[in-house]
Write a structure and sequence with these properties.
The chain has 442 residues and is an alpha/beta fold. Helices cover 19% and strands 27% of the residues. The strands form 8 sheets. The chain has a 6-stranded mixed β-sheet with strand order 16-13-17-21-20-18, with helices on both faces. A 5-stranded mixed β-sheet has the order 8-5-7-6-9, with no helix packed on it. Strand 20 and strand 21 form a beta hairpin. Helix 1 crosses helix 7 and helix 4 packs parallel to helix 7. The longest helix has 19 residues. It is elongated. It starts with 5 loop residues before the first helix and ends in a 17-residue tail after the last helix. The protein binds adenosine monophosphate and magnesium ion. Magnesium ion binds next to loops.
């Protein structure tokens, strides 16, 4: 059977996925999203000349002769806290007590910080002369009206949220987080925490893949253990399709009997089932069904998670409006040889030692297999710091070689998926819908 390469499969996926449709979202929801259009200022920042210090607004010329031994004493004409409107103009030869952030009175050209005075209320003794303009924050020195505040494509983190709020943008235009349905298939599956009977296993895929999707910045709807019956799968799949931006299924795509995903989705939309020349994770499917990207990942837990990292993660990055970069590519030195089958690209789970500053691989970083490499062996994936890549034409890489590896672990996006599905979409639906007889929601 002719095989597709990993790169061809990814290319086909990326050609068919697009950023989510832009819409305006409140700041809390916009956090972690990508800005869909340039944001320009409608106000200046600061909006008015104001004091950078607690102290006294003065005319610099009035206190130019002040020294420690011969302070200049001025009457205190006013008290200017932050907040209540425009203060009266400052008369010549007077000072106004002013707080940080309070508007500068007309006529004043400098602020003397409190520490250079006696702090007087009726009159103030100034012991050091300020420079003209000292401790004044001028209107527009951060942002001028009409200027570009944030460019389209910016990731909205905490600083960007602060800036958007400061320029009074309550609902920036963003690419909303993709809503992703994760649907595991297998009659043998039971939900975690339930008693196991003969032949049953815990559905680990829907949890692992849901977590990976959340790490990729998605809102996730999890459907656990759809039985290997075409009607049940079709019902679960088409029931969720119109509510999401992408569907990820696991299992049911091999060449065996009861491969229900393949059976039901063959011929649906542009779905294609391919054998991808990779290990783990050979059987893959992808296509648009009713315009929604559908990823059908293999059932073995490691195959499913590695496939997610290679294909779904970059697609979700694109859907979020980001470059479809995938996992970070690094270089590591092998402490032990690696083997991989001819003709397939191997992704070997490796543990990393000798990480550089910040926990990132450096010149002294060594990689060795993290344990058994069977596609059902999750412990080695959990112990791995990276997936070392063994190219198609290579069957053995000797110890001491430098090899390319995909760095595993939470992306920065993981901190950014705090707002839940229901919060963000208002449909009240939670995580972990179990489609038992007829997609009942627990
Ligand atoms: P399949 O591709 O459906 O034939 O599944 C391949 C292997 O992965 C079988 O051993 C399944 O029992 C196992 N498997 C499938 N789905 C899951 C799942 N959701 N959680 C854990 N193991 C699974
Ligand atoms: Mg199965």
């Amino acid at each position: 059977m002719p095989m597709t390469t990993v790169d061809e499969h990814l290319e086909r996926i990326l050609a068919l996925v697009a950023p989510t449709r832009a819409r305006r979202a409140p700041l809390e929801e916009a956090h972690g999203c990508v800005l869909a259009a340039d944001v320009r200022a409608t106000i200046a920042l600061p909006s008015f000349d104001n004091s950078a210090m607690d102290g006294y607004a003065v005319r610099a010329a009035d206190v130019a002769d002040a020294t420690e031994d011969t302070p200049v004493v001025l009457p205190v004409d006013a008290d200017i806290p932050a907040g209540p409107g425009t203060p009266a103009a400052l008369p010549a030869g007077a000072a106004a007590r002013i707080m940080t952030g309070a508007p500068l009175p007309r006529g004043a050209d400098s602020v003397v910080q409190l520490e250079w005075t006696d702090g007087g209320r009726e009159s103030v003794a100034v012991r050091r002369p300020p420079r003209r303009g000292q401790h004044i924050r001028r209107a527009g020195e951060d942002v001028t009206p009409g200027s570009l505040v944030l460019a389209a494509g910016s990731v909205i983190g905490s600083a960007q949220i602060g800036l958007l709020a400061a320029v009074n943008v309550a609902r920036p235009p963003v690419h909303p987080r993709p809503r992703v349905a994760v649907l595991s298939t297998g009659t043998e599956l039971v939900e975690v925490g339930s008693p196991l009977h003969d032949g049953q296993i815990v559905d680990s895929n829907s949890h692992g893949i849901a977590a990976a999707a959340r790490e990729s910045g998605a809102h996730v709807r999890r459907l656990t253990g759809v039985p290997d019956e075409p009607d049940a799968f079709a019902k679960a799949f088409y029931g969720i399709l119109s509510q999401v931006d992408a569907v990820v299924t696991t299992g049911g795509v091999s060449v065996g009997a009861y491969d229900v995903v393949k059976e039901v989705l063959t011929g649906a939309g542009s779905i294609r089932f391919d054998q991808v020349a990779m290990k783990p994770g050979r059987p893959q499917g992808f296509g648009l069904v009713e315009g929604v990207p559908v990823f059908t990942l293999p059932g073995n837990p490691v195959s499913a998670l590695v496939s997610f990292d290679l294909f779904v993660r970059p697609a979700l990055q694109r859907m979020r409006g980001l470059p479809a970069a995938g996992l970070p590519l690094v270089e590591v030195t092998l402490a032990e040889p690696l083997r991989s089958s001819a003709g397939t690209r191997g992704y070997v789970r490796v543990a990393l030692t000798g990480l550089g500053p910040g926990g990132l691989p450096g010149p002294d970083t060594l990689a060795r297999p993290a344990g058994g490499q069977g596609s059902h062996q999750l412990t080695s994936l959990a112990a791995a710091g990276a997936l070392a890549i063994v190219p198609e034409e290579v069957v053995e890489v000797p110890a001491g070689s430098r090899v390319a590896a995909l760095l595993l672990g939470d992306g920065p996006a993981s901190i950014l998926s705090g707002v839940g599905w229901a919060d963000a979409h208002g449909d009240g639906a939670g995580d972990g819908t179990r489609p038992t007889a007829g997609l009942a929601t627990r």
